[in-house]
């Protein structure tokens, strides 16, 4: 059928402007306004209720409480803290304890995770199956249960201080924790630090020089090896050339308990064990996926180009595997940081236990305390993802 | 004269026979390093497995009424058997256990057809599970009607509470998560920003702080006189938290749908909601079922955290049982039992999700 090309017919084919209520633009604006007002309305409703409720219960608002005296002790403090310190100080103490367990946890979980991830791909049947079993067992049991297990079932069986397990006169392990010698820094130690700084500068210059030489002449220089040797030998020589830069203070049994030295509390040990073992199971899977993601052809092509196995690994396999590994690895690190808040269940004084727990109970200022606690975790998450995004953007192979 | 060569079929490859010795040599002792590894592993196994089996089975005491019956050096499983009902049902009245059983049997029966490919009325059944079933479950568990006695929620506990929190939490979080995922991919800037802020906020904070918030801050947010019960408060926290994770899973599915599908829906003149409901979401959700199952596993493990705000989930009940003076010193048995329960659930679910993933890729 032919449509006669009369002006009226053509006009009817041109889409007309939809009526006001059916215009998608109008829809979008209206819908967004409604959503915005609903959210603002909910916010005002909550705010209003909260004000009334706080007034009725006689809870003051504001952050003045941070200057008040805390009046309770904390099991582990990385900075000086007494019962007369302020609530602001408890916040810092808790935050530092969270950071301590998170950073140590990330280090151990990464080491263990990489080992198990590689073992999972081993051609050795037994190693392979053991790694698989490890992963399947530990990632399918709740973390809290694992923390309880290490704390309640394993560490509670340790002997009393008098019957401690010991290694020489330096390390003691008992139900109260692990006692280590404490390093006391004397004045001459600053020379060791200075030599370390000098070595670092030298290594940086060396890297620049060898990169330039590689670009211009194509000759390679074993930077990594030279750097490592320099980094280890020079500060060590300085250390021993000086007269006692460090004094080791040994733990000693006095009465029923140890004095001096550094103590690692059992809560920290249990938490570290559980966090590292649990997260390592997930990291192992991430590592395995990363290694498997590199095509076999890449390895063969590298060999065909005449690259040595070591070079193939460093220049071809690892850069590509890292690209796949970094984003999920970041997620695991973030999970570990958030999971460290389970510390509160066994009484390790992390941010949630000290601040959202004890401080909240003592002051009753739930809103302020929870806001501060949650902001810390949000900030940590944000910072970690920014850092990893930046690293990832540098790493992405430009195609 | 030409000789016609008879066309023979290709012979099958010779059957590969590997005897035990060859297998051992290839898989365990292929090089010096591998031999060393194998021997180390064997030694480690020798150190751990026989003592464990000895403790858990050979020397274990299985039956008894008190710690006096646990005389051997092995595990005291009698502790678990005596307390078994409490671990499963918490402090739910014993003569009403059938109500809990019925609720869960009903759930399993209802959810089962969803996993059968040939079953056609999946959407109708799913909406029944989402709308009517929760009411039935609530009436059965809480009571108050049809002559059922009221069982207050502080008596709910054990595995029943764990399953209840995980299942209800996921079921309620899914629709919210879908809306948030659509919001995050929306072209409307305000909706997009609101969704992103919501999702990133809940994903950035630990579940414990969410539960603390639900238990101490939520009462402050509500008008005077309105008060939720502790279980409901925890559930609200869990749903908001879980919705953010569901949203990210669903968003992955939405991104995987080719652009042509969106454009085709538009070209057909479908409105936004029609194109989402009839074209995009059915395809996207099918893709993300493994992801949803994984999120459920994570939530199932995370529900143990409710013990910190004083709810009696299975871990809390087991944990409390250790303080019973009749059964002091059997915490290892309790933890092993709890670990076993969680492991069975999580392992089978993760295997199921792997199976689904494989099926999707083929």
Mind explaining what this structure looks like?
The complex is a heterodimer of chains A (399) and B (362). Chain A is of the alpha+beta class and 399 residues long. Chain A has a domain at 87-141 and 266-398: MetI-like fold. Chain A has twelve helices and eight strands. Chain A has helices at residues 7-13, 24-57, 87-119, 125-138, 143-154, 189-217, 223-241, 266-293, 296-304, 309-339, 351-363, 366-395, and strands at 165-167, 171-174, 177-180, 182-185, 246-249, 252-254, 257-259, 262-264. A four-stranded antiparallel β-sheet of chain A has the order 1-2-3-8. In chain A, strands 4-5 form a two-stranded antiparallel ribbon. Chain A has a two-stranded antiparallel ribbon with strand order 6-7. The radius of gyration of chain A is 30 Å and the shape is extended. Chain B contains 13 helices and no strands. Chain B is globular, with a radius of gyration of 27 Å. By secondary structure, chain B is an all-alpha fold. At the A-B interface, helix 2, helix 4, helix 5, helix 11 and helix 12 of A face helix 2, helix 7, helix 8, helix 11 and helix 13 of B.
Secondary structure class of chain B reads mainly alpha
Percent range for β-strand residues of chain B: under 5%
The CATH superfamily title of the domain at 87-141 and 266-398 in chain A: MetI-like
| Uncertain residue segments of chain B | none
CATH topology of the domain at 87-141 and 266-398 in chain A: MetI-like fold
Average pLDDT level of chain B: 85
Q: Which percent range fits the helix content of chain B?
A: 55-70%
Which regions of chain A contain 5 or more consecutive residues with pLDDT less than 50? none
User: Can you count the helices of chain A?
Assistant: 12
* Rounded Rg of chain B: 27 Å
Number of strands of chain A: 8
């Amino acid at each position: 059928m032919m449509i006669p090309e009369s002006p009226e017919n053509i006009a009817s084919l041109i889409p007309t402007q939809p009526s006001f209520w059916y215009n998608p633009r109008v829809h979008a604006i209206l819908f967004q306004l409604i959503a915005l007002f609903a959210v603002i309305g909910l916010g005002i409703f909550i705010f209003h209720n909260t004000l009334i409720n706080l007034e009725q219960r006689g809870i003051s608002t504001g952050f003045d409480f941070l200057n008040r005296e805390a009046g309770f002790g904390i099991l582990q403090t990385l900075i000086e803290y007494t019962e007369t310190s302020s609530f602001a100080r408890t916040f810092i103490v808790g935050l530092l304890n969270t950071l301590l367990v998170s950073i140590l946890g990330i280090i151990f979980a990464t080491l263990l995770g990489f080992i198990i991830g590689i073992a999972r791909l081993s051609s050795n049947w037994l190693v392979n199956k053991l790694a698989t079993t490890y992963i399947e067992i530990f990632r399918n049991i709740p973390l809290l249960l694992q923390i309880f297990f290490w704390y309640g079932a394993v560490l509670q069986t340790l002997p009393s201080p008098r019957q401690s397990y010991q290694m020489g006169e330096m390390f003691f392990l008992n139900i109260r924790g692990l006692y280590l010698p404490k390093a006391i820094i004397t004045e001459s130690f600053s020379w060791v630090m200075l030599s370390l700084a000098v070595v670092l500068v030298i290594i940086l210059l060396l890297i620049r020089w060898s990169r330039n030489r590689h670009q211009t002449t194509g000759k390679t220089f074993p930077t990594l090896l030279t750097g490592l040797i320099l980094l280890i030998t020079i500060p060590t020589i300085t250390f021993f050339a000086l007269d006692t830069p460090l004094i080791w203070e040994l733990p000693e049994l006095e009465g029923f308990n140890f004095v001096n030295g550094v103590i690692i509390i059992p809560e920290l040990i249990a938490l570290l064990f559980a966090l590292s073992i649990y997260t390592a199971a997930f990291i192992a899977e991430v590592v395995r996926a990363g290694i498997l993601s590199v095509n076999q052809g890449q390895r063969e092509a590298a060999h065909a180009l005449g690259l040595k196995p070591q070079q193939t690994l460093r220049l071809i396999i690892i850069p590509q595997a890292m690209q796949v590994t970094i984003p999920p690895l970041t997620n695991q690190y973030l999970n570990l940081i958030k999971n460290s808040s389970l510390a509160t269940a066994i009484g390790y004084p992390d941010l949630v236990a000290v601040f959202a727990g004890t401080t909240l109970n003592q002051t009753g200022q739930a809103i302020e305390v929870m806001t501060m606690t949650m902001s810390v975790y949000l900030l940590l998450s944000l910072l970690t993802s920014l850092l990893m995004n930046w690293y990832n953007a540098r790493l992405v192979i430009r195609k | 004269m030409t000789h016609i060569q008879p066309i023979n079929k290709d012979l099958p490859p010779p059957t590969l026979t590997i005897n035990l010795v060859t297998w051992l040599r290839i898989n365990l002792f292929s090089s010096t390093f591998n031999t060393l590894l194998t021997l180390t592993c064997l030694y480690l196994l020798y150190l751990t497995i026989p003592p464990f089996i000895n403790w858990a089975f050979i020397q274990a005491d299985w039956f008894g009424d008190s710690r006096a019956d646990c005389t051997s050096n092995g595990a005291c499983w009698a502790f678990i058997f005596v307390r078994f009902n409490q671990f499963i049902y918490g402090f739910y009245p014993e003569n009403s256990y059938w109500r809990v059983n019925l609720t869960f049997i009903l759930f399993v029966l209802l959810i089962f057809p969803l996993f059968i490919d040939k079953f056609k009325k999946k959407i109708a059944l799913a909406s029944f599970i989402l709308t009517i079933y929760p009411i039935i479950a609530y009436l059965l568990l809480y009571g108050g009607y049809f002559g059922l006695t009221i069982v207050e929620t502080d008596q709910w506990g054990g595995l029943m509470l764990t399953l209840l929190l995980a299942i209800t939490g996921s079921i309620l979080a899914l629709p919210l998560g879908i809306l948030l995922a659509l919001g995050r991919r929306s072209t409307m800037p305000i909706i997009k920003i609101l969704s992103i802020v919501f999702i990133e906020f809940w994903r950035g904070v630990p579940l414990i702080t969410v539960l603390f918030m639900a238990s101490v801050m939520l009462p402050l947010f509500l008008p005077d006189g309105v008060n939720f019960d502790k279980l409901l408060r925890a559930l609200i926290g869990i749903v908001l938290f879980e919705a953010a994770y569901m949203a990210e899973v669903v968003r992955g599915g939405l991104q995987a749908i080719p652009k042509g599908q969106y454009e085709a829906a538009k070209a057909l003149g479908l409105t936004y909601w029609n194109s989402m409901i009839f074209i995009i979401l059915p395809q996207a959700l099918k893709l993300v079922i493994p992801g949803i199952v994984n999120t459920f596993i994570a939530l199932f493990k995370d529900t143990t955290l409710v013990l910190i705000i004083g709810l009696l989930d299975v871990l809390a009940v087991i944990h409390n049982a250790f303080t019973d003076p009749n059964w002091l010193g059997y915490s290892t048995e309790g933890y092993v039992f709890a670990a076993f329960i969680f492991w069975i659930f999580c392992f089978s679910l993760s295997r199921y999700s792997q199976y689904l993933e494989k099926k999707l890729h083929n």
